[in-house]
Predict the structure.
Amino acid sequence: MKTLTITFLLILSACSSENSPENSVPKTPVVKNYMSYFTGNKVDKITFPQGGICLMGGATENDEAMKWFLQRADGGDILILRTSGSDGYNSYLYTSLGIAVNSVETIVFKNAEAKSDKYILEKINNAEAIWFAGGDQWEYISYWRNTPISEAINKAITNRKAVVGGTSAGMAIQGGFYFSAQNGTITSQEALLNPFDTKITVSNDLFLDNTILKDVITDTHYDNPDRKGRHVTFLARIINDYKVQAKGIACDEYTSVCIDEKGIARVFGNYPSKQDAAYFIVPNSEIPDNKPEIFKPNNPLEWNQGQAAINVYEIKGTSTGSNTFNLNNWKDGKGGIWKKWFVENGKLKE
């Protein structure tokens, strides 16, 4: 009996030692760096997308522009990429618009660590359409630029003709030049009064490879708040900093510019019930060495050139997208009107 008792105590002591805090190895819970919301068929469907770009100015999505976006996916798989929010697009794109697609998946990045996640890369590689939600464009840029994510997106655009697009911040990142908002946003008044304000962070480091928008910088929410002045200042900075006569595309809220594979832009909106408009902005090429006359830190911008510094084609957006602009030559348009913009002592005038 004594022998049995000693044996039992030895076994109990061994078990206690093995489970003591100093010898235990706690299991680290697996925490994903993203959230996924999936709707539709789990089996990937290979289709033949038509390419194209949908630029949306913010606020509520324009249904007709989103139908255009879905139709160009040819019934394939739709991928929403975002860094905030949740699954708001899933049922809207899968059922509400009446365009049949195989699936809609939203992936919400929690942080930059998801930049090389195999699951996300597989979803990008299988997508026929990629949409960037609104949010903070600096998060998109700092999370994805020069990472496997942006590389996969650009391969989807170039090699598979995936259609891409975005609203608000998702539109702001589409150009070859872009306002990164790295130091926060900036108003038109601030930009015009000091075109070298530290909040003006304009870059052309490769991010999204939309060839037709190589020398373009976009801006959004053009009517709320007014962003014309800061957009013109961005163009002035590009001329000064990069020696490029860049161009601009802008949308009012509720308004979309949809660019097909041939470089023709259609403008969708609610005109004539609303004054929804898009703007195609070009420094006047008839003026030799067209650049701002006064362009100094802490001085109001002066870009006058005889009240003819900038040519702007303004187009009202309609439900049918019948008004168009040719991005191959930036001259030919239908349904719009050419205007002259210029900046005089820090004030934009039309």
